[in-house]
Design brief:
Layout: H1 4-26, H2 30-50, H3 54-77, H4 92-112, H5 121-125, H6 131-139, H7 144-165
Helix pairs in contact: 1-2, 2-3
C-alpha cells in the first residue's frame, strides 16, 4: 500500500465489511439482515476502490448493493410473515465449522503464497492505466466476438421469456367472452 491513508481506508473498510457480514449472521430479522448485507456489499466496493479497481467497485454497488438487494427485498415481502424470522437452525454448528475451515484455508493461502507486489512504478511499468479503459478496449477489441455472442444469447433469452409468459389471444371474434 502506498500511503497511510490508503492503509487506514483498507482496514476501516475491511472492518465494515466483516462487521456487516457478522451482523447478517447474528440478525434475527431478515430486513435488518438485508441492511447489514448491503453494508457488507458497500464495504466490499470500497475495498475494490482501495485496490484501484474502480469498474468492479461500481459494478459491485450497482449489481449487489442495488439490484440483488432489491431482489431480496421482493423475496422477503412476498413470503408469509411467519417465515421472516431468522430462527435457530440445525445447520448452525456445521456452518460455523465450514466457515472456520474456509477462513483457515484462505489464511494459509494468503500467508504461504509468494504474492508479487505491484505498487507505484511497477503498475505503470506494466501498462496499468484504468480498469474501465482496459475492460472497454478488451471487450471491443480482442473479445468482441464473445461480447457479441453473449449479447445475442441474452437477446434470445429475453425473447424466449416473453414468449413463455405471453398469453395467447382468442382465435376468433367472440371467443373467450361470456354470454
Amino acid at each position: 500500500m502506498e500511503s497511510t491513508g490508503v492503509a487506514a481506508a483498507f482496514w476501516l473498510l475491511s472492518a465494515v465489511t466483516v462487521g456487516g457480514a457478522l451482523l447478517v449472521l447474528l440478525s434475527r430479522n431478515l430486513v435488518h439482515a438485508l441492511v447489514f448485507l448491503v453494508l457488507a456489499f458497500l464495504g466490499t466496493a470500497g475495498l475494490f476502490l482501495t485496490l484501484s479497481a474502480d469498474f468492479i467497485a461500481v459494478a459491485q454497488v450497482l449489481i449487489y448493493a442495488g439490484a440483488i438487494a432489491v431482489l431480496i427485498v421482493f423475496a422477503i415481502m412476498l413470503t408469509p410473515l411467519a417465515s421472516r424470522d431468522n430462527g435457530n437452525s440445525l445447520y448452525a454448528v456445521p456452518g460455523v465449522l465450514l466457515g472456520l475451515a474456509t477462513a483457515a484455508l484462505v489464511a494459509f493461502a494468503a500467508l504461504e503464497v509468494g504474492w508479487p507486489e505491484l505498487a507505484g512504478g511497477a503498475l505503470e511499468a506494466r501498462g496499468f492505466t484504468s480498469t474501465v479503459a482496459t475492460i472497454g478496449e478488451l471487450l471491443l477489441g480482442r473479445y468482441v466476438l464473445a461480447f457479441e455472442v453473449a449479447s445475442v444469447l441474452l437477446l434470445f433469452a429475453l425473447i424466449g421469456a416473453i414468449v413463455l409468459v405471453r398469453e395467447d389471444a382468442p382465435d376468433g371474434p367472440g371467443e373467450g367472452q361470456g354470454p
